Amino acid sequence: MNEKKREAISEFDVHSGEPVGIIAAQSIGEPGTQMILRTFHYAGIEATIATSGLPRIVELVDARKRPATPITYVYLDSEARKSLEKAESVAKRINEVRMNGLVRRAIENFSKGTVKLILDMQAAEAVELTAAQIAQKLAKATGYEASVEGGSILIRLHTNNMKEIRSASVRLMKKVIQGIEGAGKAIIQQDKSGTFYIIAAGSNVSEIIKLDGVDKSRLYTNDVFAMYNLFGIEAARNTLVNELKKTLKEQKINVDERHLAVVADAMTYAGDIKGIGRHGLSGQKISVFAKAAYEETVKHLVNAATFGEIDHMRGVTENILVGKQIPLGTGSVKLAIKRSGSKKVESEKKQDKPQ
Questions:
Q1: Is the distance from CB of 157 to CB of 164 less than 8 angstroms?
Q2: DSSP 8-state symbol, 161
Q3: How many domains would you assign to the chain?
Q4: What's the predicted TM-score (pTM) here?
Q5: pLDDT at 42 over 60
Q6: 73-97 burial code (b ≥16 CB/10 A, e <16)
Q7: CB 154 within 8 A of CB 114
Q8: Which of 22, 68, 241, 355 is the 20 to 30 A CA-CA neighbour of 102?
Q9: Closest by CA position to 179, among listed 139, 127, 133, 214
Q10: Is 212 a member of any domain?
């Protein structure tokens, strides 16, 4: 190996005792304080549906089960990616269509036990559905009797109970009658090379991956838990790094990817996803002082005193808290000398002393 390569590698070496967690926290936290002060305008469909900036960072490190604005990038296979017609076919099968997007008004008749759904025919035509098709799909999905009356659909519930009719009306409006539930609205995009792909405002990747025409090796969503459930913990870890890096880059903040990797590794090393907080990593620390330093100080100290807990002071936080040297850097080095060796040194000193 030549000298230049050796120097390049040694520049990025992490030595034993290096406080990588503290450095990562500083490297992310310091520029992160500026995020709330910065505002940028983004173009494209992602700008209208994606959470960005500090709220997105908090969402990621808290390991929230559902992101506020999930997005799925559906790349197509070699046959569909160059054909608009085939891309539209895939998008139609993904695009989630609910009744509340097709109905102008729902009229409940408690005396007759019916619900009349007045359709927005323009919205129905946009997703290529007729009133008869909608009625047929509703009847199949719910088991209720449905008939078409002009531009409306009449649902017969065969009950006069007001609570049951109201509950049925709410369920009908939420019913998905076309596409994949949880996939959201699917929009076809085209990159500079002329390749078509689809952006969906949802994260049901476990169902999207089953569709013909989808490139299964490139399916990606910003929902970390959806990636974890479908592809496993390594995919979730990589998604965390990608999303943190992307969010910071949008704000023109440059943070080395290795600092983000430290955070993602800490959140996923146990085989599942844990947030950084009292219900996650901080709350699972063994040290009483480390837990007390983060949140709910009194509770942790009272519990420790009540049950006689012992803190062995092996971490960083607890040693800083009580003013001791942390077990990192120079504090990670411990010197020892054999007693037999010390006696020899003392005897030599005595001999060297002038009489």
A1: yes
A2: -
A3: 4
A4: 0.77
A5: no
A6: bbbbeeebbeeeebbbebbebbbbb
A7: yes
A8: 68
A9: 127
A10: yes
